[in-house]
Specification:
The chain has 4 helices and 2 strands. By secondary structure, the protein is of the alpha+beta class.
C-alpha cells in the first residue's frame, strides 16, 4: 500500500508542483492557498523527482485568504521578489 501512496503522491506532484518548482528558486517556506479540490491535497506529502517529500525541502503555511498574509506579519529581508501562482480564471468552470 505504501508504494501506491508514494506513486499517487508523485503523480500529484507532477501535476501541481512540478510546473512551478523552477519559480521557487531557493525558497524554503511555501505559502499555499489552495482552492476547491486542491484543499484536499496534503502538499507536505507530495513526492518530488528525487523521491523526497515536499516537507523535507520546505516549511509550509496554508492560507485561506489574502488576509492570512497580514496575520503572518513576516519581517524578513527577501533576496528576491515574491512568486505568486494563481488561477487566472478563478471561479470559472474548469476546461
Amino acid at each position: 500500500m505504501r508504494k501506491d501512496v508514494e506513486r499517487l503522491a508523485r503523480a500529484v506532484d507532477l501535476k501541481v508542483m512540478q510546473p512551478v518548482r523552477t519559480l521557487l528558486g531557493s525558497a524554503k517556506h511555501l505559502l499555499i492557498s489552495p482552492d476547491g479540490p486542491l484543499n484536499l491535497i496534503p502538499f507536505a506529502a507530495l513526492v518530488d523527482e528525487q523521491g523526497r517529500y515536499l516537507i523535507e525541502a520546505h516549511s509550509i503555511t496554508y492560507l485561506t485568504s489574502g488576509r492570512d498574509l497580514l496575520r503572518l506579519q513576516v519581517r524578513r529581508e527577501s533576496k528576491g521578489g515574491p512568486v505568486v501562482v494563481a488561477d487566472p480564471a478563478f471561479g470559472e468552470p474548469a476546461m
